[in-house]
Amino acid sequence: MSDDAPDSLIPYDEIVQEALRAVVGRVLGEIEQGGGELPGAHHFYITFKTGAPGVDIPKSLRERFPDEMTIVLQNKFWDLNVRDDGFSVGLSFNQVPAKLDVPFSAITAFVDPAVDFGLQFQASVADMAPEAHDDAENDAPGSDGEAGDHPAATGSEDGSNVVTVDFGRKK
What we know:
By secondary structure, this protein is of the alpha+beta class. Helix content is 16%, strand content 28%. The chain has a single domain (14-158), classed as SspB-like (SH3 type barrels). The protein is built from two helices and eight strands, in the order αβαβββββββ. Strand 6 and strand 7 form a beta hairpin.
């Protein structure tokens, strides 16, 4: 495709993003239907915009992660509830239980490292600029932090099954 492509009157990028987010909903829905047990070695990294409309997380987490946050659904989560527009789940942060409510539109990445599968999304919230915050201390090379270590952060040039959908939009 060239840069001279005409503007589309069909919002293909939005349609594809919505369809791929439905994959996340279906996977989480199947886990919920199965009683919240993950089969085999499956586990999920879900990254989302903490300031997106509809995201409901404890104030302490929003202060710690003012732009984006990655959660892990693996061993210790509870009350997974999947809806048409998003999901809620209970997780523990530093041994403090918390309930998170996340709309699918806020998700920017979904990864299942057990099978080398991942999806990356454009934030669907228009003009949502990140707030200023301190640099993360857990994403330096060689660190043990979760947020920077999942496959979605490395891209897909390694032959993995990460799907990145990035449609340019003319303004």
